[in-house]
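Wed. Picked up where I left off yesterday with ABC transporter domain-containing protein. The coffee machine is broken again, so keeping this brief.
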Amino acid sequence: MEEIQSQSDLYRSSSSSASSPTSRVPSSHFFYVRKPGSLTQPISFEDSPDWEDTDDADVRMDEEANTGGGGDSINDATATPISPSLSKINSGSMTSPPVVPEGGGGNAVRKIAGASITWKDLTVTMKGKRRYSDKVVKSSNGYALPGTMTVIMGPAKSGKSTLLRALAGRLPPSAKMYGDVFVNGSKSHMPYGSYGYVERETQLIGSLTVREFLYYSPLLQLPGFLCQKSSVVEDAIQAMSLSDYANKLIGGDKLNLSYMKGLRSGERRRVSIARELVMRPHILFIDEPLYHLDSVSTLLMMVTLKKLASMGCTLVFTIYQSSKKCLHFSNAGFPCPIMQSPSDHFLRAINTDFDRIIAMCKNWQDDNGDFSAVNMDTAVAIRTLEATYKSSADAASVETMIFKLTEREGSQLKSKGKAGAATRVAVLTWRSLLVMSREWKYYWLRLILYLILTLFIGTLYSGLGHSLSSVAARVAAVFVFVSFASLLGIAGIPSLLKEIKIYRSEASNQHSGAFVFILGQFLGSIPFLFLISISSSLVFYFMVGLRDDFGLLMYFVLNFFMCLLVNEGLMLSIACVWRDVYWTTLTLISVHVIMMLAAGHFRIRNALPKPLWTYPFAYISFHTYSIQGLLENEYIGEVFAVGEVRSISGYEAIGGYYLIAADANSKWRNMLVLLAMAFSYRLIVYVLLRFGLNKNVSR
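Structure written out below (tokens, as returned):
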């Protein structure tokens, strides 16, 4: 609370009640500073503030977008008039706003070279996105300048995020964009590292501290020395006012598996923004930075964003609420009634969802005699607002500014270097090891469950002896151990789904790739899977009483380890297809049941029906190769006495219960098949991630 109080002593919101005086601060100053001597007074968001000019940044919140097209599109973006000096940005003569040191002293945060972005007649169409029209964004015009905060405003499902994605070049392949986007006056594509994009809901890793989480970001993105990457992390922490939380676990809620008490939603949101700041982007796009934030977190977020803009960065973000001052609505005949929320009134005027409510309640009247201050269809209201805006001086000012920003090309943004593939794999492997060791639900819980299962199986099949009569029971014990242990792997589905979500979040900003993610996850899981395999194998091996030979024991451990690797790849591939806990679990259980039936225990494999059960089920069942290898390991070379004078080999003894090969090297071939299946499933995962999941995170 000390941080919030210190920040709020410097800044106050411009929101006020309808009864406040009409004189307002220019839109280029969204926050204001108290007069000297008034710092001890409490903050009031109801009374009209006493404004005073500041020599601070020319930070402005432009209400960039009126909504239109029947509530299904964002139309002509509006912007407040800009000082003539800002039009010189392309010539490089614009001076960046001064940087305010954090906490009122100390070293100032390094400046960021911003860039101007302009869009003309921008239209985005997506088939099936809207009921009456494919146009999600229609004929939008606007601009954003360095050192400013530019806001895209509109009701839910009005196309705010689509416009933001269009400006950032991140539309999905199903969308088509028309119009022009200029960066520093040219139509060039924004290269890697020149901009950052923060999703509305960003996946964070709850078991890492804020500093650790941010530290891994430049390791995955930037080349260079560790000391250089450490400095950009500290800059990002200071810029987003996270110094007090740098060594605190991010944590999370029940939905992200960690159950760790950590940061609140406001701090988590600032961490997601700080992750993009390590690249020191010229332009930063943020999709609803105030999403799910309370009033205190909202105030602190806006103060922090203002400070970020004062560093020179170009900020463009969406927001679901408006300020009191919106003259376009008044000029169009939709003034905000007294004692009514401006946000509710303005968004209601352009939100088609209210038409259905009005139709249901058309005979109702409130105390003022009307159900709503806007008593016409939303489509008509939107067309009226469009026409009013297009004929206004603001629209002419925007067009003039767009012309000045695009008449001459400025400096081209340069791509920043990337970290090598080997570096990324090493970083992801180490991060995976750290996360898996801290979050007990990844592998520690599975280790406990495997040990409990093995103890139950061991006690069930203990004391079998080594006689010929124990062969059938031993075959059953091995089958139950492999099959049920593999099925128990479903306990790892939530953690795998979380890893996929983190990958999607990082891949959308080119922090990671499909190959490095799969290899890093594979290498990171090996120590834990091997620990599970050796602990479970030792308990089962000695409780059931298998052959007392160290070499045979080591093969048993390696075979079961390969079985776990294959099962992990199978779970990961199914999780990539569904990306849902319920359907992934249901599909995995169904696949395991089919593999158990085809594994050759319930009916010997050469007696299975050829179509379907033998081909392909028996051949794609990793249970088959694992069980066959373990039984060959146990019985090839073993001799059983039949009476006093006759004996039979282990191969002959097991022949009536399970189909194995007489060759002593067959168990190693089965091991190679399991290894090939482990890599094959991960190859499937690579294809799904590279060509399936990434189609919706196009840059």
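Quick read: DSSP finds 22 helices and 14 strands in the chain.
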